[in-house]
């Protein structure tokens, strides 16, 4: 019998969208660093965060092909627990500490969406694809080697919202060169009330910091990066479109989640 954690709170817990922690993640990523207009970057930050003056407008776009498991070998149910996502992290400061903030994130799996919302990631449904690598030699294998190009795309509601490409040049020995290194992710856990007269007084309104246990980054290569965030109807992510694109990276990462740190509770 499983313990119910997220809705629906079914009698045996099997129908729960997300299992209880611990949550373990492993995946291959494509990352492109870029600079958005500082005013547009500032506009997406919640109260309590400010742009990092050392890197105003600096951001990273990440596409990740994930595999997940909890304590019950969930990875053996790949239809439920494999997923792909695309998100953006903005360089920011919290109380003088360098952090990252996630204003937009898209995922193709309801369990991953629920886990993200619980953590404060503002996940929405989307379709995300990226070039994979395989060990058997083939023109389609995309070997992790100099000169190989990897690409990724994201779309939502039938519209493409992002495309990235990285042409590998050389391995990265020092992963601190990645824009996400050394910057914990700060999120906004927010859930509104529907009761009349209380629409502006949310049931949950917390600024939180993600806690990632046993984080590991491996097999990283750097190279030329490309990124486009096209203008589409009904979306604002293109307000962060690059004014300059930096390096691209391809590699693997893993971490576990069992906790969350509340920085400010404004409920």
In short:
By secondary structure, this protein is mostly beta strands. 7% of the residues lie in helices and 48% in strands. Strands 1, 2, 3, 4, 5, 6, 7, 8, 9, 10, 11, 12, 13 and 14 form a 14-stranded mixed beta sheet that branches.
Please give a structural write-up.
This protein is mostly beta strands. The chain has one domain: Beta Barrel (Acetoacetate decarboxylase-like). It is built from three helices and 14 strands. Strands 1, 2, 3, 4, 5, 6, 7, 8, 9, 10, 11, 12, 13 and 14 form a 14-stranded mixed beta sheet that branches.
Distance between the amino and carboxyl termini: 34 Å
The appropriate CATH architecture is: Beta Barrel
Structural class: mainly beta
Count of separate structural domains = 1
Largest sheet: 14 strands, mixed
Q: List the secondary-structure elements in sequence, H or E.
A: EHEEHEEHEEEEEEEEE
The percentage helix is under 10%
* Percentage of β-strand residues: over 45%
Rg over CA atoms, rounded to whole Å, is: 19 Å
Q: What is the CATH topology assignment? A: Acetoacetate decarboxylase-like
Q: What CATH first level would be assigned?
A: Mainly Beta
């Amino acid at each position: 019998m499983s313990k119910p954690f997220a809705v629906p709170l079914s009698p045996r817990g099997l129908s729960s969208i997300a299992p209880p922690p611990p949550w373990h993640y492993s995946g291959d990523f494509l990352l492109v660093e870029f600079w958005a207009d500082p005013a547009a970057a500032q506009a997406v930050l919640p109260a309590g965060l400010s742009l990092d003056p050392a890197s105003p407008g600096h951001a990273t776009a990440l596409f990740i092909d994930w595999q997940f498991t909890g304590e019950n070998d969930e990875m053996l149910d790949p239809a439920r627990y494999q997923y792909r996502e695309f998100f953006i992290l903005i360089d920011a400061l919290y109380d003088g500490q360098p952090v990252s903030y996630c204003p937009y994130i898209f995922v193709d799996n309801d369990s991953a969406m629920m886990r993200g919302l619980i953590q404060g990631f503002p996940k929405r449904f989307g379709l995300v694809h990226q070039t994979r690598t395989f060990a058997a030699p083939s023109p389609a294998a995309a070997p992790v080697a100099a000169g190989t190009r990897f690409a990724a795309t994201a779309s939502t509601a039938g519209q493409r919202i992002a495309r990235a490409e990285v042409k590998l040049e050389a391995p990265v020995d020092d992963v601190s060169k990645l824009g996400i290194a050394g910057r914990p992710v700060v999120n906004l856990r927010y859930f509104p009330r529907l009761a009349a007269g209380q629409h502006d007084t949310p049931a949950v309104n917390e600024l939180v910091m993600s806690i990632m246990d046993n984080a590991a980054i491996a097999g990283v290569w750097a190279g030329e990066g490309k990124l486009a965030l096209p203008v589409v109807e009904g979306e604002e992510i293109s307000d962060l479109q690059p004014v300059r694109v930096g390096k691209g990276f391809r590699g693997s990462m893993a971490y576990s989640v069992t906790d969350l740190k509340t920085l400010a509770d404004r409920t």
